[in-house]
Amino acid sequence: MEGFVNINGLDFSPQVCEHICTVISNESVNDQYKQLVLAAPEPALQAEPGQFFHLLCPQHDDLTPFLRRPMSVYRIDQDNNRLYFLYKITGAGTAAMSTLQPGDSFNVFGPLGRGFWLKPAWQNLLVVARGVGLATLAPLAQIAHREGRRLFAICSARSPEYLLSVEYFRELGARVHCVTDSDGSSNVPAVEKLIRDLIEQQGIDALFTCGSNRLLKLLQKLGREYNLPGEIALEQQMACGLGMCYCCVRTFVRDGKRVDLRVCKEGPVFDLQEAIAW
Ligand SMILES: Cc1cc2nc3c(=O)[nH]c(=O)nc-3n(C[C@H](O)[C@H](O)[C@H](O)COP(=O)(O)OP(=O)(O)OC[C@H]3O[C@@H](n4cnc5c(N)ncnc54)[C@H](O)[C@@H]3O)c2cc1C
Ligand code: FES
Questions:
Q1: Does ligand 1 have an atom closer than 6 angstroms to the CB of 53?
Q2: pLDDT along the chain (278 residues), means of 10
Q3: How far apart are CA 223 and CA 23, in angstroms?
Q4: CB 238 within 8 Å of CB 264
Q5: What crossing angle do the helices spanning 213-226 and 188-202 adopt, rounded to 10°?
Q6: Nearest ligand to the C-alpha of residue 236?
Q7: Is 267 near ligand 2, meaning CB less than 6 Å away?
Q8: How many whole angstroms separate alpha carbon 123 and alpha carbon 39?
């Protein structure tokens, strides 16, 4: 394919390669999440919302992550050549990432996958996500701000200290509703009422979510009822991240048929109604 680079028989856009970045900061957001800021070369900054990088996490004492780890782009600052990741420390790879210090080099491969695809008619976007899923959806706020689309965000978390990205969404003009388990506002009936109100009063015309099975089922139901399109960013354990090993395959329903697709290559963003709740 013209204009594309071929890696082991698969076509990728030319900016897909290893980028050696420099760590600017790597600070805690709360006791579970950290934000990594990298100085990145220009091609890496061409990543689109919903795309991800495959990160070569450092080997550190007893932390020896073997494979790269996939991570969505949280934010891109093209004016200052900065690439942001927001991550939860869950195992060896992310624990090793948390040891990165300003000035360290960090090898990221990408940008990979198919990101969000916003149709021009989608002018009023609703993002509903929980925990680190908000990291994946945050770049939608950047796009909405740049293109003059309205964005509404429902940010969900266990308790207020784990609410992520709220200020970032607000800075970009989003109208944010916070819900938490601690005060009961994140339970399904309460969130459903909030979404229904937003759809009916604000003319929402597309729905976006990430990661949570509960939210996927709810948005699929409301999407069908109100005839609204939408997209979901899925997370799946990955090895190659390139489409070669097939370890990230999930089953979807497309045109009434069950199809197996690679989350790293055909996704990680998929049509909301095609995803199968797990
Ligand atoms: C496209 C994509 C984007 C992602 N974006 C982010 C992000 O922005 N921020 C973030 O914190 N995390 C994100 N993740 C999840 C992240 O890749 C995993 O948390 C990470 O790979 C875990 O590595 P580890 O070595 O720290 O933990 P491991 O020891 O590998 O795993 C710890 C636990 O997490 C589970 N796990 C590992 N990888 C995944 C995965 N990919 N999906 C679901 N469960 C997993 C394991 O089963 C295990 O229970 C993303 C994943 C994908 C596929
Ligand atoms: S991770 Fe290898 S095909 Fe998706």
A1: no
A2: 59 77 96 95 92 92 85 94 96 94 96 93 95 89 92 94 90 94 94 97 95 91 97 94 95 95 96 92
A3: 41
A4: yes
A5: 40
A6: 1
A7: no
A8: 32
What residues contact 90, with CB distance under 8 A and at least 6 apart? none
Parallel, antiparallel or unpaired: strands 75-77 and 175-180: unpaired
63 and 95 Cβ atoms separated by less than 8 Å:
yes
User: What pLDDT does 59 receive?
Assistant: 84
Domains of the chain by start residue, with CATH: 5-112 (2.40.30.10), 124-232 (3.40.50.80)
Q: Which atom of ligand 2 is nearest to the CA of 263?
A: 4
Taking the chain, what is the end-to-end CA distance rounded to the nearest angstrom?
36
Residue 264 main-chain phi, psi, to 5 deg: -75, -25
Task: Copy the structure tokens of residue 248.
Answer: 């990230």
Question: What's the CA gap between 108 and 256, in Å, rounded?
Answer: 37
The atom of ligand 2 lying closest to the CA of 249 is 4
For residues 112 and 53, give the distance between their C-alpha atoms in angstroms, rounded to a whole number: 6
**132 Cβ inside 6 Å of ligand 1:** yes
